Amino acid sequence: MTEDLHEIRLRVNGVPHTARVPARRLLSDCLRHDLGLTGTHVGCEHGVCGACTVLLDGLPVRSCLIFAVSAARHADITTVEGLAGPDGALHPVQRAFGECHALQCGFCTPGFLTLIASHLEANPDPTEEEAREAVSGNLCRCTGYRNIVAAVLRAAELRREAGEADVSAPNAARGDAL
């Protein structure tokens, strides 16, 4: 018996996509396997680790907990690939992660980058305690979090230096309809 496929339309990183997926296909799998956007990593597949975090209409969500057909109801999805500017310029969070040595193996990094980008939209000037709280839901087995927290604070500083109010998710903030 074959599974019925559903045609869905998604706007990912500002680009419209169409895919035919089974009803039970997870958004993380759709992004990786159907759209070829492998920056979204799948770790625990239970929504615990945060490696699969993407922005859904600007808000961080665990893409391993959402069906792709459900995500099609939303205006925009931003993955780690969508954080950099159209000219390839790194997002302040990406720059800060490099400057602060906030990654080691890199597996958890895409989830942290998207989560922090969204957090800085809501709180552009976090304290160290607020930065620590913001990243507390994502797991990293390598870094000990000290440099990740430093990167949150550095990204906020880079945003202020650039004087840019909306640099965290260039595609997520737009409410473009599909």
UniProtKB/TrEMBL annotation:
Matching entries from CDD domains are given as: fer2
Q: Which UniProt keywords apply?
A: 2Fe-2S, Iron, Iron-sulfur, Metal-binding, Oxidoreductase
In this chain the 2Fe-2S ferredoxin-type domain maps to: 6-83
InterPro entries to which the protein is assigned, alphabetical: 2Fe-2S-bd, 2Fe-2S-bd_dom_sf, 2Fe-2S_ferredoxin-like_sf, 2Fe-2S_ferredoxin-type, 2Fe2S_fd_BS, Beta-grasp_dom_sf, Diverse_Oxidoreductases
The molecule here is called (2Fe-2S)-binding protein
